[in-house]
């Protein structure tokens, strides 16, 4: 029997991507809402409760509203917003982190898909804390490059406007108040004692991300060289389809540069470990619309359905 899926927010950046990924799938029966009714509460409620699984691709407040509309207890929810990521009743949709994460997704009825910046940061920091390599009180910092589609329809329109200010031509740093909405999940999921110092930068290209975490080698509790840390990550993620750990020194193939755009259009995440005996740089490269949003959401769906983990995804 086909699984009935409804995408609440199907006209948005993430919702459209999720829709696209179903076009060749025979196992899915997509319930659609007419565009003029897409914000009509009664119509959304009807479709949510008629579905087996509803994806929420909405701003946080609307996502919470949708969850409150669920009356059919069989309905499962996959939420791409920030609204439920730090709620322990929800599974955090990052199966590669641990068997516990994977199992909670497979058996769960409420799944929160990680934030895009948080995905890159947590992929690097969670394993180090879990395995006692990085102390939980490390004064950690991170910067993150992202394409402008990360800001949804509004930011896409700003960047693609016929006339726009010259500030859009260059990369722009934001979240300078140090209150980015992903900080809470970065701290909670990794087990860090404090929220990281986090500096995101949005630039003039559509999609793709590079999230980096610099570390002092002598402040690690063990494995003090980039070579050993690379081996550690290669082993940690060795069975994963979606996370690839590059060989130590792989950035040399790119003339020493890592680009935010390399994984655009792809659903996997590459990890680079670079640096020297004193200072390391750990980087995650992926697509904010892929492993950073709709790709991760579909991966969670596949795990819940028990089908191929990469069904409908590009690797
Ligand atoms: N873009 C990205 O890279 C990522 C996005 N996310 C998250 O995914 C969610 C969706 O983001 P994104 O697709 O980028 O955002 P968009 O702004 O592109 O799309 C949001 C959609 O939700 C619709 N919407 C707003 N309010 C309501 C409502 N009350 N009822 C029904 N529909 C409503 C909007 O309608 P309208 O078309 O009229 O504007 C729009 O189509 C957000 O929570 C975002 O933070 C997560 C990871 C990455
Ligand atoms: C460029 C840009 O503005 N990006 C967004 C992140 C998009 C995202 O991951 O949003 P959710 O947390 O809702 O999933 C930002 O930094 O707020």
From TrEMBL:
Its EC number is 1.2.1.38. Pfam families: Semialdhyde_dh, Semialdhyde_dhC_1. InterPro entries: AGPR, AGPR_dimerisation_dom, AGPR_type-2, NAD(P)-bd_dom_sf, Semialdehyde_DH_NAD-bd. GO terms for molecular function: N-acetyl-gamma-glutamyl-phosphate reductase activity; NAD binding. Residues 4-105 form the Semialdehyde dehydrogenase NAD-binding domain. It catalyses: N-acetyl-L-glutamate 5-semialdehyde + phosphate + NADP(+) = N-acetyl-L-glutamyl 5-phosphate + NADPH + H(+). Its main location: cytoplasm. The active site is at residue 116. GO terms for biological process: L-arginine biosynthetic process. Keywords: Amino-acid biosynthesis, Arginine biosynthesis, Cytoplasm, NADP, Oxidoreductase. It is found in: Cytoplasm. GO terms for cellular component: cytoplasm. The keyword Cytoplasm applies. Pathway: Amino-acid biosynthesis; L-arginine biosynthesis; N(2)-acetyl-L-ornithine from L-glutamate: step 3/4. Belongs to the NAGSA dehydrogenase family. Type 2 subfamily. Catalyzes the NADPH-dependent reduction of N-acetyl-5-glutamyl phosphate to yield N-acetyl-L-glutamate 5-semialdehyde. This is N-acetyl-gamma-glutamyl-phosphate reductase. It comes from Anaerocolumna xylanovorans DSM 12503.
